[in-house]
Amino acid sequence: MYYLGDYFFYILMIVLFVISLAVQGRLKSLVSKYSKVMISSGITSNEAVAQMLRENDAGGIVIKHIDGELTDCYNSKEGTISLSNTTYGQNSITAVAIAAHEAGHALQDASGMGAYRVRQFLAPAVNICSRLGVYVTIIGVMITYMASRYRYSNLGYTISTIGIVMYSVAVLFYVVTLWIERDASRRGWKAMQQFGWATGDQLAAAKKVLWAAGDTYAIALASSALTLIRLLAMRGRRR
Predict the structure, then answer these.
(1) DSSP code of 61?
(2) What is the mean pLDDT, run by run of 10 residues, along the chain of 239 residues?
């Protein structure tokens, strides 16, 4: 039997899916557009990263190339910043902006940023918690439904609660991740402004690229939060 809340949930999920496609499309469009525009200072992505690290006393970080597009990342365990085909050694607005963003992550790590430490702590458990949390909650709801006439019906409620707690770890991870990604973008954009790599319209363009990338994490957070609300509603209904 479906309830009004069920239909509302599915409608919201469809809306989020459409928004997600729009966000991803905008990001790809911006990345493509400003990958063809050379940054006014002529600085390359590698030089930008090196300067950010040097000016903030964050030594020991190795800049390396990685295949793919938008596969750029900072690896705290290896102490490396990997720049993709469209970023490594390039001097476009997009390349420098993305490289500065990854350097921002390295600076977060070097400064011991609390939120960054929390994400590193939660990361190993996220995939397991996000997947099993949903299934454990559903199993608990099913047990509650089947055993509702017996004295042990609370067992299902307890199991579903465990599942919800597990999934909440994933939601917390997305919350922290969004904050970290936005902060890395702010650090990168601030460096572009501070060191004079770009000015005026180019600086505004770099900000568009950085914030569009962050919007993808906002969608992921919204989707996970909606799923958590759905799980809570399922458990509460059977209670």
Answers:
(1) P
(2) 64 90 93 94 96 92 93 93 95 96 96 93 87 84 70 74 91 95 95 93 95 92 90 71
Scored b (16 or more CB within 10 A) or e, 162-175 reads bbbebbbebbbbbb
Q: For residue 1, what pLDDT is reported?
A: 42
Determine whether 29 is exposed, middle or buried from the number of CB atoms within 10 Å of its CB (0-12, 13-18, 19+): exposed
DSSP state of 199: -
Single out the residue of 15, 19, 224 nearest to residue 127, CA to CA: 224
**What pTM was computed for the model?**
0.86
108 CB-near residues (< 8 Å, 6+ apart):
115, 116, 180, 183, 184, 187
Q: Which pair of tokens denotes residue 83?
A: 């720049």
Residue 42: in which H helix or E strand, if any?
Answer: none
Which pLDDT value is given to residue 137?
84
* Residue 117 host element (H or E): helix 114-146
108: its two tokens = 């977060």
In the block, tokens 């970290």 appear at: 180
Sequence letter at residue 102: E
3-state helix, strand, coil in the chain (%, to 5): 70, 5, 20
In the numeric block, the tokens 């900072």 are attached to: 74
What's the sign of the alpha-carbon dihedral 206, 209, 214, 215? Answer: positive
Q: Which amino acid is residue 51, in one-letter code? A: Q
83-122 CB burial, b ≥16 within 10 A, e <16: bbebbbebbbbbbbbbbbbbbbbbbbbbeebeebebbeeb
Q: What is the pLDDT of residue 237?
A: 56
